[in-house]
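Dear colleagues,

As part of the handover before I leave the project, I'm documenting each prediction I ran so the next person doesn't have to rerun anything. This entry is a single chain, and its sequence is reproduced below.
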Amino acid sequence: MSPSDQPTAEPLPQPVLRPVCLFIPSFGDGGVERMMVNIARGIADQGVPVDFMVGRREAPFLDSLPPTVTIHALGRVPPRERQRFLAEYVARSRPAVVLSAKTEDDRIALAVKATASTDTRYFLRPGTTMSERWRARGKNRLKRWWEQRELRHLFQRADGVVAVSEGVAADIAEVTGIPPSRIRVVRNPNITPEFYAQAREPLDHHWFGPDQPPVIMGVGGLRTQKDFSTLIKAFALLRASRPCRLMILGQGRQQGRLVRLARDLGVAEDVALPGFEPNPYRFLARAKLFALSSLWEGSPNVLTEALALGTPVVSTDCRSGPREITRDGAFGALVPVGDVDALAAAMEETLRNPRQPDVLKEAVQEYRMDISARRYLAAFGLIGEG
């Protein structure tokens, strides 16, 4: 069966009647938010009631939630009011599970757990390697000690932890001291039922026209973690030896600096930073190569999505995610973090000898939304393994 013909998930034969609550009032426009929406969708498709708690109803990605998911909009309120809202909801609705995915939301959820009288279970979903983030951001020893102390306190109070990758699971165990047996790994639900249809949507951009140079894609927030400056420098080396173009989809405070870097390197005409794109898949599907240059990750969604579309990939071997997703580099070249020369050489080699699309697509079928949803329910103890 080809990935584009994936079956529609059938609901569980005996649906769980108590709802699963996804608590993310700090909702923004990033990968964590998109994955939480997909988790909600997948669980709802299994016939389980889902309540989704956010700050505002107009937030990105929420329009893809089905009518069976109840959205609770808290409004722009301080943490104490968010805690009161969640506590009243838990007392009233007695959800089977509350899942949170950001530290500020974890604090609130576990504060409610400490005072609630229901048997609701509270799960945390870490999405990145905290130790690498501290190191890359230059946290001093005192700040790292304080943050690690807080994380230990949080995670030891949770009923369970669901990590997005083996690397994140190992990092959380090391940082917090909780036993690895309390941490479950469930892959992100990147591949939704509409994923391939979105990739086939029209794209009116002359760079993707016939007889145009190959386009290399980068996708993500324009911030330190993604290290797009290394990608632009590597592209400049590659561009000196062959015609090609680089497009980076995303927005962030580093945009001006990246534009200036491309200009200083003499490649500004072949580098585009068009901003946030709600449907990056139509770009990824038409690109000749996707490059991930991150300093650290948890489980980089766009790397999985590029492979699911059959687009060849190159990635830094950052902790964690790329090595797991590419199966130790079998489905995409891995290079050292921050190594401009190695990244340029890997992009050159991949453009010359790309892997077959069908092979790349099959490598990431574990990231289908229906498979991920069942594994979340199993991690919550709401269904059996299988």
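The longest strand covers residues 50-54. Residues 3-189+368-379 form a domain with the Rossmann fold fold (CATH 3.40.50.2000).

All the best with the project,
I.
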